[in-house]
Amino acid sequence: MDLVAPAIRPFPGVATGPDGPPDADYQLVDDARGCRPIFPGSWQGGRMSHEDETGRLVTVIRDGVLRAVGLRRGGVVAYDWGFEKDGRAYTQRSFVLLDDGVQINQPALFPAEQRGWWYCDLVAVADHGDSVAVDDLLIDVIVGPPDHPYRMLDLDEYADAMASGRLDAVAAADGLRRVQRFLDRRLNRRHDTTRTWPSFPPREVADLQTAVLPQDWELLTS
Known about the structure:
Largest sheet: 7 strands, mixed, barrel
Order of helices and strands: EEEEEEEEEEEEEHHHE
Structural class: alpha+beta
Number of helices: 3
Strand content: 35-45%
């Protein structure tokens, strides 16, 4: 399931100043988005670069249609991307859990009563080190507060993809195994009486929620 409805139009981000290296006080001004701080780093051939103990920059290709610059730290890649809906601009932060093969985010379009809840997508991950490609594999999990049961979605669409041959038997089996592993590792409490998720969100994600990330993304197709 893709949270971006047809009425939502992604728009490109910009990671550089208009005439050269931005300084620390530079504010990116975009008519669609208002003002956002520029990502701090060094100027190298027209692209910002920032590599230290906080992580390293990677390129993320999302569903073959969106390219974004993100930050890789341990087993998590975080990246921002933007879209418009009903004339309003939004920036969405997504996190790829490389070991789980799951992409998670707190949707900007969730209603107020679900603000802060998590949307988790099963994805195919192609990890090339400096670039990571993620492609949606239909099965989703909505995770709210620990005293609220999580909800699984789109198992019927996954079954349809298997039946039609869009997912071959090997890929389908791998996806189901990874979903079960994600649930057991992150969410299933078994006999625990404490109302907390065992390992969700992962610690690396909590750290990256407030990190300053590159504001650099673009559509690859019209």
